[in-house]
């Protein structure tokens, strides 16, 4: 009839509006796509299975944004939803079979609600556990029980926010007439949502403070966990229509079905360790991490030694307009925890031998704190002008954890492996005074080689710093150049590029309001004969330095 049709279009309009207001992150687009596909099936009198709808929604999002496959938000959202679709029904059925439980719980709605909420939490948590371990190297323990409180609070917070938004929008035209009364009413409408959000924060704080709230797990264990979850899903999933499942429920799995999962887990575990094998003798690898608007480079040498140069910090610009239809990050300075630390756990299995901070700008040094706190390092190198607040915080963490701190100077050399050398070319004993940025011109400059092609890392060096390098007679020749200051117009001047003669230029950059990389800088690089690769377009970039240069695609966001 007309009324149901109007109601359907109203819901579609509200869903579309909500998607637009939130900026369209993967989780919201997943919910929107699944709802629209399911509603389309109902409208055509062809209702689809939930797993099919979820699969089509994932496919549609990946057609729209293929690299979202490697986004934590996409992975966690679809994994949790798949867990609810596949694992929740058998878990709930198992609870229903416990006749003793049913007798005890009969008439007690709170107990039944708790059992249902526990089944929902276990189903979602089991599905996302391998993703969490693979991405962050940590397995949450307290979250299982904390979600029993957090899930209903999240619903209350969302409802409260919607009430405040709608109420505020309706009252806004009347504010000039009603004076402060409209503002008071709007604040009152927003009070339940604010209370729910405060409750969520307290639940998170309590869960984090509990002993063993999260357990550090080797990232290779993600393969074993994934194998267990795949086995569990395959064993309990019932692809039959709902009426067939009601007539004859599928029996719970037997122990003989465990062997394929064990073989899969062993294979995945082995693959994780193979991926960590160091480069062969005479070569080294550089992984230019996709840390958004910042720098983060992981160098791996024969024998397993490693050097992390910068760690990112400012994931992306705070301007949401730069991201539409994608989303800006919820925590702009969380790159260290969400990208750099997980990559180090995944690739190295632990801390780097040396963490070098070229200078104390947040987009280079902001992610160093989480590395020092969560992983540590054998030595911390600090470049730039001493005395900044960010540098002081890093020094405090290093002092507390007993990490030696070194301020590298020109002429210093580190030999991570036979035939390999990391040479310090800059700064001198005094920072170079420049018209643009003293801090940038005091950046730590490193030249890396293992007998073959060389790599030059220049931090955020501006033209004055580049001229100082050339005036000192530094040997800056390198086949690969990490472009200074994210492709700023004030760096990479022609004389410097003529001295470097790069074949490959890597620009570490993300969405930003500064127009980086600048067209003038890109034109200079092109005239110098360099092939330019950008992390904002390619994601993380892996370069192997051997007898020749080899460039490999790597997972976006630091994979």
Describe the protein in words.
- The chain has 559 residues and is of the alpha/beta class.
- It has 3 domains: 1-70; 142-211; 276-553, Metallo-beta-lactamase, Chain A, CATH 3.60.15.10.
- Helix content is 51%, strand content 12%.
- The chain has helices at 2-22, 26-43, 50-64, 72-86, 88-97, 99-105, 109-136, 143-171, 175-178, 180-209, 221-236, 242-247, 258-275, 335-347, 362-365, 368-374, 389-401, 438-441, 463-471, 494-500, 519-527, 535-538, and strands at 138-140, 214-216, 284-288, 297-300, 306-309, 354-357, 379-382, 405-406, 413-414, 421-426, 445-449, 455-457, 480-482, 504-507, 531-534, 541-545, 549-553.
- The strands form 3 sheets. It has an 8-stranded mixed sheet, with helices on one face. The protein has a 7-stranded mixed sheet with strand order 9-10-11-12-13-14-15. A two-stranded antiparallel sheet has the order 1-2.
- The protein starts with a helix and ends in a 6-residue tail after the last strand.
Uncertain runs: 315-332, 432-436
Total beta strand runs: 17
**Percent of residues in helices:** 40-55%
Q: Number of domains in the coordinates?
A: 3
| Spatial strand order of the main sheet | 8-7-6-5-4-3-16-17
What would CATH call the architecture of the largest domain?
Answer: 4-Layer Sandwich
CATH superfamily of the largest domain, called what? Ribonuclease Z/Hydroxyacylglutathione hydrolase-like
* Share of residues in strands: 5-15%
Tally of alpha and pi helices: 22
